[in-house]
Amino acid sequence: MPSLSSKLKVSLEVALALFAIATASANTTDTTDDAPQQPTIVDYTTSEAGNPFVDGWYADPDTAIYQGLYWVFPTSSYPYEEQTYLDAFSSPDLVHWTKYPNILTTQDVTWAKKAVWAPAPAFRNGKYYIYFGANDIQEGEPEQGVIGGIGVAVADSPQGPYVDAIGKPLIGTYNNSAQPIDQDVFIDDDGQAYIYYGGHGHANVAKLKEDMISFDTFEDGTTFKEITPNNYVEGPQMLKRNGKYYLMWSEGGWTGPDYAVSYAMADSPLGPFYQVDGTRILQQDAAVAKGSGHNGVIHVPGTDIYYIVYHRRPLSEDAGEHRVLCYDRMYFSEDGSIQPVKMLVKDNFDDGDMVGWKTYGGELDPHVVDNKLEVKSDTEDGIIVALDANFTVQTYDATIILSDSSNDVTTSAGLVFRVTDVTSGPSGAKGYYAGLSTAGRVLITILGGDGTTVFVEGVDIKAGIEYHVRVSATEDGVNVFVDDFESPVLVLSDTTYTQGTNGVAVFNTEAKFDNVTIAEAT
Predict the structure, then answer these.
(1) Which CATH number does the domain housing residue 491 bear?
(2) How far apart are CA 43 and CA 244, in angstroms?
(3) Whether the model pTM is above 0.85
(4) Shared domain check, 451 and 387
(5) In this chain's numbering, which residues are marked as the site (Important for catalytic activity, responsible for pKa modulation of the active site Glu and correct orientation of both the proton donor and substrate) (predicted)?
(6) Is the pLDDT of residue 4 over 90?
(7) Tens digit of pLDDT for each residue in 56-69?
(8) Structural domain includes residue 30
(9) DSSP SS3 for 265
């Protein structure tokens, strides 16, 4: 039987571990007793069920962990006059998301008329707070009587409804030339709350009092301290890890492809923040998306697992407001520096949705059934369901289940890649198609031109069986693997098409697809 001292030692170790977990995300985690506090530990490399992880035009996400759930609070990304409300999303596992519409609207804030954006959540004293920008005031306008800036609203639950806490902007003027927008609220381990904010190339920090709706002053008697790092534009975000403070921000133009995230480090929440070469950690990827920036961070409590949550613009979208919410894993080096973030492409359809996929050709709508993408075509013309991607040299993996057991060689299902001119479906697309047929064929078709097809016959392909198909597209040609990834089933030497989108295609049959992964080959 364990001794009393052993029991006390174990109890002390458990208590210390629980305390460490509870304080790991003190700035965004509530301590109410009405729900489990710690969320499920999720260890992903990216959004395994696909990016964007929710549907709709959203931007500027910030995050929190409330009542055992992961929360994301974004801007509704529309023209300024239409930005009159905020939505929120929660998830138990970063896969299945619940939407809470209109948690705050301009009807709840009498002085806010438009450009309600960049919400920042905080929890203290049993209350939930949202800090937000509104009206997009410009320098000189406050002196002319224009009202706007950073407001604060309060609620009794994470999903609101939130109501204006003070009836006016919390910060309604320019200080140190910083536009009062893009706020982030951080509560340090000692309980001191800070608000970081600023646009127009200047960043400030201020100390919030315990009431979270008024300011304390610094030792020199000032309220706003400028902390602008090199290349700063907007969107500050504060993170603390292992005693170090990380100030993250966005640089570049928010409507352009060069929007990106950089960071600097300090030993204090007030700086000085030091930068080194290579501190831009998230930027556009010509194969995946552009305009990636204005981030939040999810830290899984009690672990060293971090995700960067951000918005980006799909490759085919040019409108400034057309932004979507995504997240990818964020890793740290041994010296504490943040490694460059790689935007990965995966979709296991476990969220029951196909956000980010578009259908071209065909009359039957694809949908997700039992966490698999089900695609049907009743003609030889076929149908393509594609992502907004532009990969060149690549490794493309997916699983395929065919439903038709006929020996008709016109029936097949498979993967399309390096495809352009996809809008009219397979008949007008240019690129490559690697397919399986229950007629015993593995084939590659060069879409466009004369539609050359090469194939091997006598392959045992059965309906209802899941096959893992891999396409390795190199500078010299294409290799197709089926279950065996050492020896390709089919090899095509062709360099007609070098880049384009990825997707799936079905011809005159029905098939299910799963576990899609696309990566640049090294």
Answers:
(1) 2.60.120.560
(2) 23
(3) yes
(4) yes
(5) 182
(6) no
(7) 999 999 999 999 99
(8) yes
(9) strand
Task: State how many domains the chain has.
Answer: 2
Residue 30 confidence class, pLDDT cut points 50, 70, 90? low
Which SS3 state, helix, strand or coil, does residue 270 take? coil
Q: Give yes or no: residues 398 and 475 share one domain.
A: yes
- What gap in Å lies between CA 240 and CA 299, rounded to an integer? 10
Is residue 503, in this structure, part of any structural domain at all? yes
- pLDDT on residue 253: 95
Domain co-membership, 511 together with 433: yes
Q: What is the CATH number of the domain that holds 137?
A: 2.115.10.20
Write the DSSP string, 10-53: HHHHHHHHHHHHHHHTTTTB---SSS--SPPP---SB-TT-SSS
Contacts 24+ apart (CB under 8 A), 253-257: 254/291, 254/293, 254/294, 254/320, 255/291, 255/320, 256/291, 257/284, 257/290, 257/291, 257/313
Helix (H) or strand (E) holding 282: strand 280-282
Read off the pLDDT of residues 267-309 as tens digits, 9 standing for 90 and up: 999 999 998 777 999 999 999 999 999 999 999 999 999 999 9
Where does a domain end: 319, 343, 367?
343
Structure token pair of residue 299: 């830290």
CB 342 within 8 A of CB 283: no
DSSP of 341-384: PP--EEE--TTS--TT-EEES-SSPPEEETTEEEEE-SSTT-EE
Same structural domain, 113 and 67 = yes
d(CA 266, CA 269): 7
CA-based R_g, the chain, Å: 26
Per-chain mean pLDDT for the chain: 92
Residues annotated as catalytic are 60, 234
Distances (CA, A) of 69 to 91, 118, 363, 513: 6, 20, 39, 30
Using CB atoms within 10 Å of the CB of residue 100, give its burial: 0 to 12 exposed, 13 to 18 middle, 19+ buried.
middle
120 pLDDT exceeds 50? yes
- 413: alpha, beta or left, given left = phi > 0 and alpha = psi -120 to 50? beta
Domain termination site, one of 297, 320, 343: 343
Has residue 3 been placed in a domain? no
Domain membership flag for residue 133: yes
> How much is the average pLDDT of 129-157?
97
| 374 and 497 assigned to the same domain | yes
| One domain for residues 397 and 510 | yes
Query: Tokens in use for 447?
Result: 């879409």
Same domain, 131 and 91: yes
Q: Are 129 and 122 in contact (CB under 8 A)?
A: yes
Helix (H) and strand (E) counts for the chain?
1, 35
CA-based end-to-end distance of the chain: 57
Mean pLDDT of 222-231: 97
